[in-house]
Every structure is written in C-alpha cells, then in structure tokens.
C-alpha cells in the first residue's frame, strides 16, 4: 500500500467536566489513502464529529486530544503550533459543516469570502482570485456564477448555499475534505445533488474525503470504505460493499438490519435492544457488551482489539482466531 | 429606500408635535411666570398688561397653536427671564453642548468598542477581568459623583486640568469652538470623560457579550476551518457582525448624551444649553424650557434616523428586504 494521506493512531479525545473526565473518542485508528472516500458512521454521540474536529484541529475547548497521533503524509499535525495548524486548515484539509444556512457570514458577499480564502492560501492576486472564485462557483453548479459572485448568502437557497460552502472548502485545493453531515440540514431532493457535486469534484481533483453521516444510503453510494463508530471506539472498518453485505461486528450487523430496504423483503425492521451508553457510563470491556446477544465472559472483562476478517477489521472477540469454540458457544 | 426615508421623516414630525404638546402643557403648571418677572411690587394693571403681552390670557389650544406656528417659522419666542429671543440664547449655547457631546460620544464609541473587543478576545486575561470590574463603577456611579471625583483628583490635587468652563474659545462665523486653543481642549477632557463614561462602559459590555456570541457561530467556525488568519476572523468577520445590534443601542445612547449633559454641564459650569435649561427652570422661563425639550427630542429623532440608515449600510439582508422584495 502506498503511504497513506492521513494516518490516525490511537486518537483519544477527552473533555473534563464536573462529573469527571469524559472520553469522546477512545483509541481510534484508521488510515486514509489519497483520493479515497471514507465514510464515518455511528449514532449521535459516537464520536464522529469529534474525530473530524480533532483532525482539523478545531476541537472546542475544554475538549482536547489526550493521546495518540494524527499524521498527514507522514507529518504529525496533532501537536502543531496554532499558526502552523492554521496554514494547514483550508490549504491541505478543508471542512464542510452541517448547516449551510449558518456556515456563511451573512454580511459578506460570497465572492469576497471566496477571494479572502484563496488569497490567504495562494499567491494569487485578488483579481486572479476573483476569476478563480467564479470558476469554482461554476464547478459546484451555481447557475450564472459570474453574475452571482457579488450576491450575499441570504440571496441563495439552502442547497445553493451548501454548494457555495463546498466551493469555499475546495478553494485552495486541499488534499482532504472532512464533510460533517453535509446534507442533513437539506431537503431530501437536494441531498443527492449536493453529494454528487462533492463526489465528482473530489474525484476530479483527487481530493480524499472523510464523510461523516448517519445515512447508510449516502455511504453506500459514495464511500470506498466505511468506519463504524460506537461509543467513541472503532467497531468495524472495511470496504463499503463488505461492511454492508457481510458485517462482522454484532453492532454493525444490527445497524445494517435496521435499514429499511425498498424491495421490501421483511415486514419489520430489526432493532438493537437498548441504546448507546452515555460517555460517563461506558461499561468495562467491549462498550457494546450490554446490548450484544452474543456477549460472553471475556467481553465484559477485556476490550477487544481489531481483528482482521476478510477485507475488513472488526473489534470483536468472536473474530479472535485463538478463541475456543466452546467459549464462543456460551 | 426613498419611500422609507419619507415615511421615517413623517413619523419624526409626529413625534416632534407630540413632544411639543407635552412640553408646552406641562410647563403651564410650573408656576406663574408673570409673578416671577415682575416682583412683588408690581400693580395688578402691570401684571395684566404683562400677561396680555405674553399671550398668557388666551385659551390653551390657541396658545399651543400659536407656539407651534411660531416654531415652524423658527421663532421660539422670547425668554421671560432675559427678554431676548430664545433662538439667540440657544445659538450662543449650542456649540458648547454639541462639542462636549461630540467628544464624549467619540470617547464612548472608540473606548467602548475597543475595550469590548479586547475583553471578548482575551476573555480570561488578568487585564480583561480588571477592566470588567472597573467598568462596574462606570455603570453604577452617578454622573455628578464621577465628575466631582475627577475634579478633585485632576484639578484640585494634581492641578493638571481646569475644573470649570470652556477655556478660551475661537469664533468662527456664528460658532464658538474650543477645539482650536490649548485651554479649550484641556477644558474638554474632564467633562467629556464624565459625560461619556457611563455610555462607554455600557457599549463596552454590549460589544463584549455580542462579540462572544458571534465568536461561537457556525460561520466563525467555518472561517477557522478555511484557515483564515485570526486577525481576519476577529476583525473582518466577527466585529462586523457584532456591530449590527450595537448600532441600535449606541444610537440611543448618543442621544441620551445630550440629555445627560444637563448634569455634567452643571458640575463643570459648562456654558451649554443644559445649564441654560437649569437656570430657566429656576425662573420658570417656559419658552426656553420648551425649546430645550424640542431640541433634545429633535436630536433623538435625528440620531434614530441615522441609525436606521446605518443598518442599511451594514446589513445586506435589510437592503434586499425593502428594495428587491416586492
């Protein structure tokens, strides 16, 4: 395998609170190849957005990276001084947020917001930057881009604003885009368009994407690989087709079982009993053990490492090749 | 835009007439000006002649209508006390008050926005905490006390600055200014601080809380995610959004600077319209008092109009709501 674009090793994000230290992301590891699209899925509070914020260095205090490391093309970026990290943001790692209605400064023309971003990160003159801004807006599918470059954000619809946000995130040609629920706030009819714009542009430019979402449909259509998070930990990671058709972790199996399918094979959707534990009450051992129908003694005692299973990896003792069949049967 | 302006000016006129009505009717109950002017030795015939000359024997609506008509022509009547046209008295005093208000307003705006931004950005800094603590004094102490304390410290003890009056003034046309002489500028310092301190601390606290609010918004987070410089984020993106609500409050506060000038002018014996009003109250000089009230109301209305126009300049959402919308 070629050198990964992004390498996350044992990333741990913690929040000091009055009730003690909460661990929002717990020893998370994954790699991302250049140009690859990685889906990051999980329930609310599973640590998806925290992971994204940690990578781009925008954790809200008092949250902080408490352990592990993040490397961008081999260079460590999790402990860089603020100014060096600022130069990476926008230039090498871009980010798209959930709500396009609030992501744009309402008092500044979109053209000026684009020009500002371009001029900050490149040698372009403001005049060249403005031409580039217009071509970016064209690329994200804003009709009459040249005419609308002097418009204010409120003059655009939600979908159009998210296109502008994508143009802004891509303005300085970053190598990686972190898209944090980019379509959740949009109408269903617009969601597919936005995902298509993002996907096509990133493929053309060779930009890698971390797509944070809880929409498995979007992941299935867009991502190359998918990582399933549960209570801040990695449950399973692997090629999208494998994870969807042959999930190995019991949680992933439950997650896939709870997705309605249009061909209507089943009448009732399967549910996972219980709910994800709060960060202050994560059980010992495997975080999923209280809800897992196949849990056994070891699941309560130890935290499972990631085991290889086909093309995927999953953190479940059921996949431990050294485990005795008798133990698994219990 | 033009329609908006015309509507606002019409509203302003209504406000002015209402103020004029209240001013005029209230002062009818403030004692008998004739008795004040004539002294105890005057004969009844003299009093009646005086009452007739001042128009005080007419019924109230007639008096008010006459007052309004005169005002519209720029005739604010003749002072009962001094016997000169009120407009001349006000003209003499106006430059002093307006210069004082201008400097206090600038002090309040520049100091308030500057310190507000500073304390918001260095939220946990020692200096910020100190500024916030001291600002409580500005909000809670009455103006006259601050004025007297400043006089005691800088004029009596340290002898750095004059304690009263405008110093030397220069006459340019009908305007006397204290801006062009050393003593004139020195005399402005203490009254301006006294008058502007309350507004400054108020603006500062407002700017601080607005700025903290704006710094938490998604578009600031997105600006950070785009790698913009801290400077561009704070002063290009955050400050501009902070100023939208600040403009309203600041506008009203600048209006009240002129109203509050009465106290400051009294403490510093400042020869402005405020002290003219105080001496007129003592003499029940109705035309002067009514003119003063009209002047303050007019100033408020004017400032509000400017504030509305500033909104248009700052916030593009309002511009399209009135021009492009329908």
Nutshell version of this structure?
By secondary structure, chain A is an alpha/beta fold. Chain A has helices spanning 48-56, 82-88, 100-103, 110-121, 126-139, 145-148, 158-169, 188-205, 216-222, 240-245, 250-257, 297-301, 325-329, and strands at 6-17, 20-32, 37-41, 64-72, 75-76, 93-96, 176-180, 208-212, 225-230, 233-239, 307-309, 312-314. Helix content of chain B is 76%, strand content 2%.
Overview of this protein structure:
The complex is a heterodimer of chains A (330) and B (326). Chain A is an alpha/beta fold and 330 residues long. Chain A has one domain (6-260): P-loop containing nucleotide triphosphate hydrolases (Rossmann fold). Chain A has helices at 48-56, 82-88, 100-103, 110-121, 126-139, 145-148, 158-169, 188-205, 216-222, 240-245, 250-257, 297-301, 325-329; strands at residues 6-17, 20-32, 37-41, 64-72, 75-76, 93-96, 176-180, 208-212, 225-230, 233-239, 307-309, 312-314. Chain A has an eight-stranded mixed sheet, with helices on both faces. A four-stranded antiparallel sheet of chain A has the order 2-1-4-5. In chain A, helix 7 runs parallel beside helix 8. Chain A starts with 5 loop residues before the first strand and ends with a helix. Chain B is mostly helical and 326 residues long. Chain B folds into two domains: 34-75, no CATH class; 88-323, MetI-like (MetI-like fold), CATH 1.10.3720.10. Chain B has 13 helices and two strands. Chain B has a two-stranded antiparallel sheet. In chain B, helix 5 packs parallel to helix 12 (286-314). The model of chain B has no long low-confidence stretch (mean pLDDT 83). At the A-B interface, helix 2, helix 4 and helix 7 of A face helix 9, helix 10 and helix 13 of B.
């Amino acid at each position: 395998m070629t050198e990964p674009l992004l390498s996350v090793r044992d990333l741990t994000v913690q929040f000091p609170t009055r009730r003690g230290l909460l661990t929002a992301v717990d020893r998370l590891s994954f790699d991302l190849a250049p140009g690859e699209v990685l889906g990051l899925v999980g329930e609310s509070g599973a640590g998806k957005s925290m992971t994204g914020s940690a990578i781009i260095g925008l954790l809200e205090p008092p949250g902080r990276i408490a352990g592990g490391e993040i490397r961008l093309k081999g260079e460590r970026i999790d402990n860089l001084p603020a100014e060096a990290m600022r130069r990476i943001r926008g230039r090498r790692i871009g980010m798209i947020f959930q709500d396009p209605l609030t992501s744009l400064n309402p008092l500044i023309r979109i053209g000026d917001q684009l020009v500002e971003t371009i001029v900050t990160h490149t040698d372009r003159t403001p005049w060249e930057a403005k031409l580039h801004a217009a071509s970016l807006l064209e690329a994200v599918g804003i009709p009459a881009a040249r005419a609308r470059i002097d418009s204010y954000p409120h003059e655009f619809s939600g979908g159009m604003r998210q296109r502008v946000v994508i143009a802004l995130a891509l303005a300085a040609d970053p190598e990686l885009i972190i898209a944090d629920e980019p379509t959740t706030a949009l109408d269903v009819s617009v969601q597919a368009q936005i995902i298509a714009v993002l996907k096509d542009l990133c493929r053309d430019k060779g930009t890698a994407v971390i797509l944070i979402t809880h929409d498995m449909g979007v992941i299935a259509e867009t991502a190359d690989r998918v990582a399933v998070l549960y209570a801040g930990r990695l449950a399973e990671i692997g090629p999208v087709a494998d994870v969807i058709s042959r999930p190995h972790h019991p949680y992933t199996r439950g997650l896939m079982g709870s997705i309605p399918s249009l061909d209507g094979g089943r009448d009732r959707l399967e549910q996972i009993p219980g709910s994800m534990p709060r960060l202050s009450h994560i059980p010992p051992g495997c975080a999923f053990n209280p809800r897992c129908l196949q849990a056994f003694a070891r699941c309560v005692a130890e935290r499972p490492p990631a085991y290889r299973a086909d093309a995927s990896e999953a953190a479940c003792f059921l996949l431990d090749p050294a485990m005795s069949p008798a133990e698994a049967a219990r | 835009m033009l329609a908006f302006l015309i509507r606002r000016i019409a509203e302003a006129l209504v406000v002015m007439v209402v103020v004029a009505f209240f001013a005029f009717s209230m002062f009818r109950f403030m004692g008998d000006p004739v008795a004040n002017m004539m002294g105890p030795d005057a004969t009844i015939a003299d009093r009646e002649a005086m009452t007739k000359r001042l128009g005080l024997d007419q019924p109230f609506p007639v008096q008010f209508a006459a007052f309004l008509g005169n005002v519209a022509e720029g005739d604010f009547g003749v002072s009962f006390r001094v016997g000169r046209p009120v407009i001349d008295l006000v003209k003499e005093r106006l430059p002093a008050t307006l210069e004082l208000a201008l400097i206090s307003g600038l002090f309040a705006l520049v100091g308030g926005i500057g310190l507000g931004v500073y304390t918001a950005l260095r939220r946990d800094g020692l200096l910020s905490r100190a500024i916030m603590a001291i600002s409580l004094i500005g909000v809670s102490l009455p103006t006259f006390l601050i004025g007297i304390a400043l006089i005691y410290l800088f004029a009596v003890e340290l002898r750095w600055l004059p304690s009263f009056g405008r110093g030397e003034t220069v006459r340019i046309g009908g305007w006397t200014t204290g801006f062009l002489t050393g003593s004139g500028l020195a005399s402005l310092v203490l009254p301006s601080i006294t008058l502007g301190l309350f507004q400054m601390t108020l603006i500062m606290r407002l700017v601080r809380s607005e700025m903290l609010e704006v710094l938490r918004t998604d578009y600031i987070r997105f600006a950070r995610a785009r790698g913009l410089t801290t400077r561009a984020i704070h002063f290009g993106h955050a400050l501009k959004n902070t100023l939208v609500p600040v403009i309203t409050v600041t506008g009203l506060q600048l209006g009240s600077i002129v109203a509050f000038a009465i106290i400051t002018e009294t403490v510093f014996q400042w020869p402005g319209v405020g002290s003219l009003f105080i001496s007129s109250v003592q003499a029940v000089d109705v035309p002067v008092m009514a003119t003063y009230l009209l002047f303050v109301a007019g100033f408020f209305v004017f400032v509000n109009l400017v504030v509305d126009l500033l909104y248009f300049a700052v916030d593009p959402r309002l511009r399209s709501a009135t021009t492009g919308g329908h």
